[in-house]
């Protein structure tokens, strides 16, 4: 089982840390860029919860070339397929 699935199975949301692990980036990168990526998290007492359906839609769009993830230091963020 891929590591990004172990914590999120059966849950409709990912935390910032889980999304960062899934996309092989840092939580800071997720916090800086989620708006630019079009994600609309649920904010519960200061904690962002990213709807899994939105994340999967964004990943599919990236696979199809419809959206591009920003780069930091020349390193492209890789969305999980």
Short description:
Helices cover 37% and strands 19% of the residues. A hairpin with a 2-residue loop joins strand 4 and strand 5. With 81 residues, it is of the alpha+beta class.
Descriptive report:
The protein is α+β, with helices and mostly antiparallel strands and 81 residues long. The chain has a single domain (3-76), classed as Multidrug-efflux Transporter Regulator, Chain: A, Domain 2 (Orthogonal Bundle), CATH 1.10.1660. 37% of the residues lie in helices and 19% in strands. It is built from four helices and five strands; from the N terminus they run αβααββαββ. The strands form two sheets. It has a three-stranded antiparallel sheet with strand order 1-3-2. A two-stranded antiparallel ribbon has the order 4-5. A hairpin with a 2-residue loop joins strand 4 and strand 5 (75-76). The longest helix has 12 residues, at 52-63. The chain is globular and about 35 Å long. The chain starts with a helix and ends in a 5-residue tail after the last strand. The relative contact order is 0.19. Mean pLDDT is 80; it is low at 1-6.
Rg to the nearest angstrom? 12 Å
Query: The biggest beta sheet, please?
Result: 3 strands, antiparallel
Q: Kindly report the CATH topology.
A: Multidrug-efflux Transporter Regulator, Chain: A, Domain 2
**Roughly what is the average pLDDT, rounded to an integer?**
80
CATH class: Mainly Alpha
Secondary-structure element order, N to C = HEHHEEHEE
Q: Helical residue percent? A: 25-40%
- What is the SS-derived class? alpha+beta
Question: How are the strands of the biggest sheet laid out side by side?
Answer: 1-3-2
Count of individual domains: 1
What is the oligomeric state here? Answer: single chain
- Principal-axis shape equals globular
């Amino acid at each position: 089982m891929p590591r990004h699935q172990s914590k999120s199975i059966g849950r409709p949301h990912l935390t910032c840390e889980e999304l960062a692990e899934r996309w092989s980036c840092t939580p800071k990168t997720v916090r800086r860029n989620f708006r630019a990526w079009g994600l609309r998290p649920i904010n519960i007492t200061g904690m962002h919860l990213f709807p899994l359906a939105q994340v999967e839609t964004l990943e599919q769009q990236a696979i199809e070339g419809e959206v591009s993830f920003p780069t930091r230091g020349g390193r492209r963020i890789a969305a999980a397929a």
